[in-house]
Amino acid sequence: MKTTAFKKADVKEKWYLVDAEGKVLGRMATEIANILRGKNKPVFTPNQDLGDHVVVVNAEKVALTGKKETQKTYYHHTGYIGGIKSTTVKKLRAEKPERIIKSAVNGMLPKTKLGNAIAKKLKVYAGESHPHHAQKPEVISL
Q1: Lower Cβ count inside 10 Å, N or C end of the chain?
Q2: Domain count, the chain
């Protein structure tokens, strides 16, 4: 049997629009990660960036199950000794609701240079409006 390898030039990139209002975070993030990676296409190649762009709106209205709103904590380190910082979802939703979705999707992508390139195709906005109307994103419901 022959194996067919596809290149980026062989595949046309599409843009998708996802409305996060009322969607469960984890379930939505897995679908977005699959689209970004290109796993929803028959030409999926694990070592190529053949995925599509995804625009997510209404990030502030994403749903979380259980007590995650108060109990789930995000950590980051400043680089200094004793510099670990923590933030709850409730506080993060008030300040930067885009980071909730971005961190969930980034956790499902490969931790490589390819994963970093794929993550740049995700655009997340807190409200209803976005500046990507010229790309004519296709509305999908997850």
Answers
A1: N
A2: 1
